[in-house]
Design brief:
homodimer, 200 residues, five-stranded parallel sheet
Chain lengths: 200, 200
């Protein structure tokens, strides 16, 4: 280029400028809980509730990453850990862009979620325990996975043959056995307000 | 949850709804060119020009992914290829969220860029050749990398000891040896208008 390069290198658009454009702060709502606890339902409902308030959100879930970013990773402990690590990194980038990222992964291990918090940044990482007892989740068995796990067709299934480590200090716990979807989503919106990620 | 789950599963927010919220279409401006050709300068300038028009963009570059998402990958042919594959997948997700993603990677190989186009989707993938001849880039040598490559301190350096395969049908070619930064950015904005990703 013909002019002085240094003189033309403006800095990138930072968090404050993104907030002024979008009217929200980029962050990550990290939903964790057993299969069947209601993570996907809440993710989709929260995204829509935010959209209706003029806010921009984006869901990261297994469907979005398993065939793409995490293709080649299997379901061994190591591969699952790498899967959650990459999800943490992408969630961070999505939040950096100014968007409210909603992740919906079982993410059963405390250490992996703590790493997500470090990667994303403590003040932008909102850990939400989507809590339903195992009996309820197993009764729902929306995808038939619990039946398969009980029959030994799936090894290391969280809650059956692999542990779930509940969050010790989540930003929010939602008991989806007693709360309706509408009530649960209102709690999530209230969390985002309380944490000053949105104002409306 | 106490009500019928199926009745409450709304679909996710799709491209049309995102466009109505943001006034833009999510897409990827894929800058490719030699080290020193001006990719980073144009990425930062384009992001700011879009912001000034009320548009939301996000830059993906080596700094953003090498320490995070692609940590553990080195600079072998295979690792470089996996690096660009992951960048393609993340760029796709960023575009899915409604944001204009700007990537700034040398990405010297045609096959890897063609794969990026397939992953992102042809109508959302805008390949831009940031073209400056090797002599000019080497003369600029902003990071001192060409000197190191000539001294054999860096192996397989694009343009010196490893090939650069220019795009055959880029959406745009910008000759940064003759164009100013301001002119180059105006061409990128015009491309986004012509491709109907933005209207202003």
């Amino acid at each position: 280029m013909t002019e002085n390069l240094d003189a033309n290198v403006h800095s990138e658009i930072g968090p404050a400028e993104r907030e002024s454009l979008l009217g929200q702060k980029g962050c990550v709502v990290w939903l964790t809980g057993l299969s069947g606890s209601g993570k996907s339902t809440l993710a989709v409902g929260l995204e829509r509730a935010l959209f209706e308030r003029g806010k921009l959100a984006f869901i990261l879930d297994g469907d979005k990453v398993r065939q793409g970013l995490c293709k080649g990773l299997g379901f061994s402990d190591g591969d699952r850990d790498e899967n959650i690590r990459r999800v943490s990194e992408v969630a961070r980038l999505v939040a950096d862009s100014g968007v409210i990222c909603i992740t919906a992964f079982i993410s059963p291990f405390r250490a992996a979620r703590e790493r997500a918090g470090r990667i994303i940044g403590k003040d932008r990482f909102l850990e939400v325990h989507v809590a339903a007892d195992l009996a309820t989740c197993e009764k729902r068995d929306v995808k038939g996975l619990y039946t398969k796990a009980r029959n030994g067709e799936i090894s290391e299934f969280t809650g059956i043959t692999s542990p779930y480590e509940p969050p010790e200090n989540p930003a929010l716990t939602i008991d989806t056995t007693s709360k309706t979807v509408v009530e649960s989503i209102e709690e999530l919106i209230e969390l985002l307000r309380a944490e000053r990620k949105i104002a409306v």
